[in-house]
Amino acid sequence: MSVERLEDGGAPEQALLDFPLSRRGDVVPQECSWLREKAPVARVRTLTGDPAWLVSSHALARQVLEDERFSLKDTARAGVPRQYALTIPPEVVDNMGNINSAGLRNAVMKALSPRRPGLREALRAKAGELLDAVAAEGGPADLRAGFADPFSAALHCEVLGVPFEDWRRLMSGLDVAFMTAREPFADSALNWYKDVGYFADRFRAQLALPAEERTGLLGTFAGLREADPESAHLTDEMFATVAVSLFGAGAVSTSAFLVLAVLALLQRPELTGYLRAHPERIGGAVEELLRWNLSVGDGLPRIALADVRVGEVLVREGELVLVLLEGANFDPAAFERPEELDLEREDAGAHLAFGAGRHFCPASALARAHAEIALGVLVERLPGLRLAVPAENLVWRTGFIKRLPERLPVAW
């Protein structure tokens, strides 16, 4: 790699490096520290061949995420540089943009609250049920397929009001929906249409029920269709698009985090013992594991809406900026001993795992509750849990929005 010389933010002559970095999710890419020290705003070439700015320090990453001149919505606009091909059908993107109902937004935010009566108890019971099934099958077992994926699906099925029995069909759709490719491929759109169709059918099923029998967010949407003037014009497919987006982004993120969090603990057996002995520390442990997590493999994208100086670089209007979370969350300027996974860390809460600013993840509290319950039940039910294969033998998925091992074989 070589550092490029820029004059007043002028265009560089060549790309600094190809992006994304390593797909392995249990080792911080070796380029991170070099980038932070030598080129915290670096010129890169993305999967599509487009140029972008890669921001790798904590302070500059926070600046980009909090500055509304850097837009997330505009990354879906036609003609802008991309980190990978846009594979979501334009009409699905448009449906999301056309939803301006205050009642619908309020319903979504209420559904994403972990304070809903009975939710934690239901999740704790489901976690126990899934781990009992894993234990009954015997080890080695795939903890991703047997626990992380179905438990993440269970949360989102409960929130949305769809049958948990459909979890495999829904999770399998994500394998295609969140592929990262150099060019669009036709069957990606077909996959999205299939999932929108599923949730449109489930929405219509809720509409057919008496008000008192409706469940989940789709049940709330059915009530809005009937009673909220701002929502009455929304089509079945528009409501379904919201549900598809919430399930997809939520389930893939919570499952990937949980898999990598468990892997990090299994590689440090003393930490699982610590959590078993100190269950009151589970919340702080989740915060540190969020800082440590490497599941976001392609950076957080933003399009500059104006010329903005970031560090020593002038980012021009229309350029793509990628926030490198593994750079920011392992920055020694923000975290003491960042290379150490410390479950008693006091500065872990400064991590950017949920983003920052206007687009701070609205489901962050729900995601934390999901992780706390999952890890708490896991260390309690399977105290001898260990990785059943050498870590270097795990197979890491390529061409996907998350860093993710195909399987997580464990024994106990």
TrEMBL record:
Listed transmembrane segments: 238-266
Source organism, top-level taxon: Bacteria
Record InterPro entries: Cyt_P450, Cyt_P450_B, Cyt_P450_CS, Cyt_P450_sf
Keyword check for Transport: no
Keywords, ordered alphabetically: Heme, Iron, Membrane, Metal-binding, Monooxygenase, Oxidoreductase, Transmembrane, Transmembrane helix
Pfam families from the UniProt entry: p450
Entry similarity comment: Belongs to the cytochrome P450 family.
UniProt-recorded name of the protein: Cytochrome P450
Native species: Streptomyces katrae
